[in-house]
TrEMBL record:
Its main location: membrane. This is Oligosaccharide flippase family protein. It is a multi-pass membrane protein. It comes from Flaviflagellibacter deserti. It comes from the Bacteria. The chain crosses the membrane at residues 12-36, 42-62, 96-114, 120-138, 150-173, 179-201, 225-249, 255-274, 295-320, 340-361, 368-388, 394-415.
Length: 438
């Protein structure tokens, strides 16, 4: 009961921290929509989404395994393996992050078919990958050691302080901002986030002991890490993947409307993501100790608040979506149904629980990756069919369909593995069914 209370308090603290950042983020999107035209906003969302997903690939998936292996090797009394994995994660992430950013920057600058006014945005968007890789690594280390506030503090406080602070100053002063200026500001903001993240873990990032590198174990790490790349994209970056995959099938104004609605919906959806990620270390410990019975209580305790928030967000978008979107500009009022669909997708994620993360903790990376890969094909097909016909609403429907398919397939795989269910509905039904006996 004490552990549950502590987990609930941590989740609520992060939720409270996110509430403040969510308010700033909402205002920031309003300012962006007013400073940039629809074409520029669409390009900015696309470039930003590429910069968000690229670090997952370039870091080889190692940051997503930090919680699992830190818990495992700490529990087994092998601190030398903890240090080895921490240092390998940093070495590979930094090396490939720099190389990948430079390659993408070169391609974006010299590739034919890109308008000259967009080239600088691609350049700064590509370079932003470097500090984002650093944040994924050091933020992941903080999370693995249960430094949850330190894990999210840079992105929740430092990023909006720098990025939003400058944009607000420009807007309130009556100035103008170009796409190049906004992209450069984003790069500078993430550089600050990376620096703060490194400072937070400065005493633990090298590990608790001298590392011991076992080639057999390292091959196992690499073999298990790559499937996690696909899984991490769906669990953490599904909104960015949706923008990237929808862009080829829509006009830039439609991309801007779809991306804007995603940003607004994600202000609510982030609560779901944070609540699930806070559970990772405890789920890792429970699996390592084979205490599967304690997982359900933790999932239930961390899911009630996100469920209430997603229900509220959906109802708010249904009844007041047009007025909310009107704050960004009259041209976005027509996207009210897009916003409602995307809010409902966040509700689905809250009800489904942390099933994809639990599959990763249990070591079922292959199964998890296969489900996510098929889900990506569903998303591509959905966009190809619906986005050209219905624009932003079609892209939103494709994302909702993909979300349902992904989470249902994950729940089925998890149940087939060992009979465990992570969806909130199962815990509520189970609790109701046993209450008379109590």
């Amino acid at each position: 009961m004490i552990a549950l209370s502590r987990l609930f308090s941590t989740s609520m603290l992060l939720t409270a921290l996110r509430v403040g950042a969510a308010g700033v983020g909402f205002l920031t999107q309003i300012v962006l929509a007013r400073l940039l035209n629809a074409d520029e906003l669409g390009i900015f969302y696309f470039v930003s989404s590429v910069a968000m997903i690229a670090p997952l690939v370039l870091c080889h998936g190692y940051p997503s395994l930090l919680t699992r292996f830190v818990s495992r090797y700490t529990e087994r009394g092998k601190p030398e393996y903890v240090s080895a994995f921490l240092r390998l994660t940093q070495k590979e992430g930094i090396k490939w992050g720099v190389l990948g950013a430079l390659v993408l920057a070169t391609v974006g600058w010299f590739a034919p078919g890109i308008e000259d006014r967009f080239r600088a945005a691609f350049l700064f968007g590509s370079l932003t990958i470097i500090p984002m890789c650093l944040y994924r690594i050091y933020g992941g280390i903080a999370g693995a050691y249960r430094m949850f506030v330190g894990s999210y503090l840079p992105s929740l406080v430092v990023l909006p302080t720098v990025f939003s602070g400058v944009l607000f100053t420009v807007y309130l002063a009556g100035g103008s901002a170009s796409l190049t200026m906004v992209s450069a500001l984003q790069f500078a903001s993430w550089a600050c986030v990376a620096a703060v993240s490194l400072y937070i873990v400065r005493e633990i990032y090298r590990g608790p002991a001298e590392p011991v590198y076992d080639r057999r174990v390292q091959r196992r790490w690499a073999r298990e890490a790559w499937p996690v790349v696909v899984v991490a994209i769906f669990t953490s970056m599904l909104t960015d993947l949706a923008v990237i995959l929808a862009t080829p099938f829509m006009t830039l104004p439609d991309v801007a409307a779809f991306g804007l609605c995603l940003k607004v919906a994600f202000l609510v959806g982030f609560f779901v993501q944070v609540s699930h990620q806070v559970l990772l270390p405890d789920m890792g410990d429970a699996v390592a100790r084979r205490e599967s019975g304690s997982i359900g209580v933790k999932i239930l305790g961390a899911s009630l608040a996100p469920l209430a928030l997603t229900v509220g967000g959906f109802l708010l978008s249904v009844f007041f979506g047009e007025y909310m979107l009107g704050l960004f500009g009259d041209e976005f009022r027509g996207a009210k149904y897009t916003l409602a669909i995307l809010m409902f997708a966040q509700f689905v994620r809250a009800v489904a629980g942390p099933g994809p993360l639990l599959l990763t903790v249990k070591g079922a990376q292959g199964t998890n990756a296969m489900i996510c890969a098929v889900s990506a094909l569903v998303l591509i097909a959905g966009n190809a069919i619906m986005a050209p016909r219905w624009g932003a609403e079609g892209a939103a429907l494709a994302l909702l369909l993909t979300t349902v398919f992904w989470l249902v397939a994950t729940a089925f795989a998890l149940y087939r593995m060992d009979g465990v269910r992570a969806d909130l509905a199962s815990f509520l039904v189970r609790r109701t069914s046993v209450s008379p006996a109590e």
